[in-house]
Amino acid sequence: MTLDPNTFRQFRHELHRFPEVSGQEIETQKRINAFVSQFNPVTITEVGGTGLLLQYGQGDTGPVTLIRADIDALPIQEVNAFAHKSKYEGVSHKCGHDGHAAILARLASLLAENPVSDGRVYLLFQPAEETGKGAEAVLRDPNFAAIHPDRAFALHNLPGFTVGSIVCKPGSFTSSVLSIIVTFTGKVSHSAEPEKGLNPAYVMADFMLRTKQIQHPEPQSDDFALITPIYTTMGEKSYGISAGYGEVHLTLRTRNAKRMDVLTAQLQTLLAELSTASGIDIQTSYTEAFVANENDMEAYNLIRQSAQALGYDFIEKTEPFKWGEDFGLFTQHYPGAMFGIGNGEDSPALHNDDYDFNDSLIEPAAQLFLTLVHQLHGSA
Question: How far apart are CA 341 and CA 163, in angstroms?
Fold first, then answer.
């Protein structure tokens, strides 16, 4: 079945108009299922709650390859006024996952036209990437556990890079990211007598200032460690009460998991010192963890060779991107790699309220994935 490439642009626009945030991609799953069913996969299986897994090829022997795209949107109000703008208040596709899903749908159509001769290929439409929960949910799903991929691949569009250029590197491609919630529990008192309570304000302020001294924000450094304040709260809007409780939320970014372990240990030591000196009870918890995408050298070489065979510009990046991506959890389990494709040098940045995915990437990205597949599996 040969389709006009505009069909996939229209599909991307449909996903963009009806975005759903992480874990709530119920209608998105239905839309994808209805669209890709026409490309006759061997099976379509629900995985990870609101994800889909398509199978192509039926070989009991031979390689097993996984190609993944994310499908969730963000809680961001869109400011664009184009015809396919989000119909939902406060929710929009500002990371291009609608485009990633369209690329994978196009690949499904290409695999229907160009079947693999050996092994099996699985296409994963993964939910909840933005919260770091989707990859974990898929990996824990018995429907996924049965497939045992030999290799796994994914992509992400990249604002700031020339349209269609392929960006990759061996080793860490994206950073390890971890969010930390620190609670400071003291004792409330009358604001005229703060000495009769334990106000956490100055301990919180000291902690915030000292995190700035701990970090190494230069991305080129092997010791790269970025600590970003996200949210803080303390006390109540009652001017006769000295606060007795506060919270600080931070996001931590490092080049790899080992460096993250060092950074969190530093923070825990600092917090223990502050608690001992002040009498404030300090507790920590962690959320939204993303392990670094560790690109396997052989998988990296397959991406580079495929890009060069297609005549695409190829850029080898020298340091990891600072953002996190939960595909890193797949590269902890299977040899694989993530690469980037340029969304345009003038494209608004990811998570900006005026960002939009570049539709011209759908066809070249799908062709790159197809070339990868045929390098590994051959064509019938």
Answer: 7
